[in-house]
Amino acid sequence: MAKQHKVTLIRGDGTGPELAEAARRCVDAALARTKGAGSIQWTVCEAGVDIMETAGTPMPDQTVQSVRDSDATLKAPITTPIGTGFRSVNVLLRQTLDLYACVRPCKSYRGVRSRYENIDLVLVRENCEDLYAGVEFEKGLPATAELIETVNRLSADKKVKTRKDSTGVSIKPISVENSERIVRFAFEYARKHGRKKVTWVHKANIMKFTDGLFKAVAEQVARDYPDIEGEERLVDNMCMQLVQKPELYDVIVLPNLYGDILSDLCAGLVGGLGVAPGANIGDKGAVFEATHGSAPKYKGLNKVNPTALILSGMLMLDYLGETAAARALEDAVAATIAEGKSVTYDMKEDRNDPTAVGTQEMADAVIAAMGS
Fold this sequence. Notes:
alpha/beta, Rossmann fold, 10-stranded mixed β-sheet
């Protein structure tokens, strides 16, 4: 019997609402056109700077509760202020719901401009600790000064001296438990999806008790998966390797900060964030999102590329067990991009090409490519 899935749709801000509508229509069409597929009961919720003006928070309690109660969540982009304002809503969701695994597939699609071809990588990023845990101390505070005095005392033999009145501090926690579950997630993902190799990334030659711990745990977990090749790379070398010979890599697992940086690097290999989907997965739920920002200057113009959020919907269908519908949706996206006719301005050879279509029209083309 076909299953009905409970899904929260977070509309976001900026161009988020129009992207959310395009992606929702494509997901529904993929299910409707797939024999034996289930359906989705959508709950539409708000988050971001727009709702903050009336709710006093960028993430209302009812939105968080809806995410908790759903089988999955599809989230449109949300603005994150730089330097001031509220912390990232994405980080809040990940930490509140313990969505510890960020999965970022980076795959080449014919018709997308790139210097590379045939890229097919998956980055798996630890989501809940490292420097992104948000344990920070502002410069000039008494607690910060005490921390810096301790650092200076402990590093006296290394002649490291930091001014306690002009320095901010961030703490980098790396635990055995979180390292083990993210590395194990990467190996399980590789096994489930027919991947052959997992590479764990660190900087243990310098940060011996944090990245060194991550490295040691990864080596231990890898022993449980003799059917999958395992290897390690230093994060700086990994960046060079990905630029020079990305074809050597398959699944890459990293601590939080490195994962954030390298996932954008890998998106660059396949044409940019406009075609890069993402998933944040925990043991009790998952949030799927485009990896790009909300582009508020294009709000309401029906102009931005919906590919990343549509492909995030594809990842959500796969997560929900709707594998055939997921493949149908991805194939339709690939066909639309390859044809190059009904695509947004950024996917045209000339960004001023008058034949470029809008956000909703590209979604229409993806739906049409799935047939009736």
